[in-house]
Amino acid sequence: MATCEVCGNDYDMAFEVHAQGAVHTFDSFECAITRMAPVCEHCSCRIVGHGVAVDGQFYCCAHCAREAGATMVADRETAPGGRR
To answer: In which domain of life is the source organism classified (predicted)?
Structure first.
């Protein structure tokens, strides 16, 4: 069994995430997200999807980036069939 580095649970189905030269052990995706997902600079939510990066700052969406003063940003989501 392995111990989750976030909650300390010793779990027989724990998994490892290899990222940026480090190995992390988690017992759930919730703990992995808590430790590894970036935080939106505007609303402080965890960025689990694509997000938006502007001048080295990360935002969960274009709205938050604009609220923080960024211009010329748009979400990249496309409609069914690839249309915007």
So the answer is: Bacteria
